Inverse folding.
């Protein structure tokens, strides 16, 4: 580092670190989305349709989550049923 | 049988055509029978970089449509006997490249050549997927910059799922990273992602680092692949890249700024 740099050293240490951190998060997210099976959205729609035959639930009441662990995959379904007060169809 | 190499990136303007021209010329100069194909239908540019734009009579799509045979369309390089160029068509029909057609031409070229270099268009649409579908090796050209690195990662996903090798459960495509437009001074001052930063994310086999260089524009201005400029840093870096591709152990160069004298250090040269 030059002498003049020395006096300027109060400046922040470059933007490359920020770039790397942002990329690491983004790429991890992209890769997770890639490894997800392509049938998930269809699965979600069909499950929702079946449940709506019996219970009046919102369109966004079903969430489907797919995770890949080391030796196995986890398919997680989360269905939020309405309050007990809601009448059945 | 020829080895089919795709030069890809996802993002545009990172140096795919420059790299395709350099790799093809470098292989041919080492005596390998090489053909370089422009897959960028509608936006032909490889002919300009190779300096043969005035000799284009027939193109890739003419050959696919059997309006011309391969010998009529292939342009022999005037500097190197072992090198041929197959130019892209200027048609606006995006689906002119059919999988059957491309496969048939590559098969025919495979009988004659040692290496087939496919210069892919940017993006992930038809032309790009056709360029990579038949590949044995892929060179992912990346700039040390966020959008380029992200797009490269995306291309890796496509390479591993949408290629002939993936579909036939064959050995996967060999993937190489080529980092271009690298500016060691900016890396040292923390303004640019370093090779290690990029490798932490992509972790690929590093084929080379091409420094940001005025020689690249000079070369394209005159239609002479930059690898022929042996005086230039970029030309030498591309020379190293070809050697590494052929399995030679060559240390990476141009990673650091040149040592400066005391006075220039004092005043930031």
């Amino acid at each position: 580092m030059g002498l003049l740099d020395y006096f300027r050293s109060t400046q922040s240490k470059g933007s490359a670190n920020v770039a790397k951190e942002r990329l690491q998060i983004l790429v991890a997210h992209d890769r997770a989305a890639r490894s997800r099976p392509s049938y998930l959205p269809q699965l979600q729609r069909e499950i929702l349709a079946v449940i709506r035959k019996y219970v009046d639930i919102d369109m966004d009441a079903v969430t489907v989550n797919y995770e890949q662990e080391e030796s196995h995959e986890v398919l997680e379904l989360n269905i939020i049923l309405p309050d007990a007060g809601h009448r059945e169809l | 049988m020829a080895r089919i190499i795709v030069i890809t990136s996802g993002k545009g303007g990172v140096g795919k055509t420059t790299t395709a021209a350099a790799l093809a010329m470098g292989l041919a100069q080492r005596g390998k029978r090489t053909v370089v194909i422009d897959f960028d239908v509608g936006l032909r540019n490889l002919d300009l970089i190779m300096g043969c734009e005035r000799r284009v009579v027939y193109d890739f799509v003419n050959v696919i449509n059997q309006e011309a045979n391969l010998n009529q369309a292939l342009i022999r390089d005037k500097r190197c006997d072992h090198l041929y160029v197959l130019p892209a068509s200027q048609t606006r029909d995006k689906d002119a490249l059919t999988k059957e057609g491309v496969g048939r031409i590559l098969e025919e070229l495979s009988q004659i050549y040692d290496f087939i270099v496919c210069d892919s268009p940017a993006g992930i649409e038809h032309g790009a997927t056709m360029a990579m579908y038949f590949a044995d090796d892929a060179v992912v050209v990346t700039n040390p910059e966020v959008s380029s690195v992200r797009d490269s990662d995306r291309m890796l996903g496509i390479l591993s799922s949408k290629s002939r090798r993936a579909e036939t459960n064959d050995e996967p495509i060999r993937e190489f990273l080529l980092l271009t437009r690298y500016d060691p001074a900016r890396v040292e001052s923390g303004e640019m992602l370093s090779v290690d930063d990029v490798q932490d994310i992509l972790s690929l086999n590093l084929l080379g680092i091409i420094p940001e260089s005025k020689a690249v524009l000079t070369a394209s201005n005159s239609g002479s692949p930059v690898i022929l400029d042996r005086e230039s840093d970029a030309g030498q870096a591309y020379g190293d890249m070809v050697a590494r591709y052929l399995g030679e152990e060559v240390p990476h160069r141009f990673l650091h700024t040149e040592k400066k004298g005391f006075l220039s250090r004092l005043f930031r040269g």
Summary: Residues 15 and 21 of chain A are 10 Å apart (CA to CA). The radius of gyration of chain A is 24 Å.
